User: What shape does this take?
Amino acid sequence: MPDLHSLPAGSRPEKAVRNNGPDNLVLERYKLRELAEGWPCYRDACEWDNLKSLFHPNAFIYTTWTGRTAYLDFIAASQAGMDKGAFIMHRCHGATTDINPEGTRAVTKMKATITQRFNIQDCLVDAESDCRFCFFWEKRDGRWGACFVRHWYEKDKLLPVDPRKVPELDDERLAGYPKGYRYLAYCQEETMGVKVKLDMPGHRNEGGSTTGKQHDLLYWQCKQWVEGENVDI
Assistant: This one.
């Protein structure tokens, strides 16, 4: 029977500080949580200058609909999408941070729900994907900033805004998307004119699938980052 309840052996950064620890690192972790929560709070409210303040220059972001994108290009794409009617919101549910003892590198994992409204066959629906943001932080000249932002996409669903109006979906097409963001991907391709990435990190229970392997890889990259290795994500 496959072990789908354990993380890859050795992938935990053993020297990282999390939960309690010295007071100075507690304060640093608080700063990082505030920065992480800034993503949904700033982006959803169109506070673009505040959103830009989260990143270091040359930072990159991954999403289902943009792939690997420079953060300024992601912001420009978000603005253009809003002008075309895209309506994406986020809910934050909690965050944890692993920080190195020197207080110079860290990874924050933030549980969230991505919710995007679509019009499918004249039916308004919300695709909701439960995910975890993964922020790769570095402190430079006394300032924390994100260098990379990724996500684990873990579970999603499609909700009708009006329960009397439910669109008909193509089962064969639907089955071609990863289960962690299946309905989100279907609706994005249906309405946004984009080709969604099919290899985003999923949940541990996806095992040896592409998205399951990407789940494990992202954990290894978190470990490498906190331990000071050069990682291009």
In short: Residues 23-44 form the longest helix (22 residues). The CA atoms of residues 43 and 80 lie 13 Å apart.
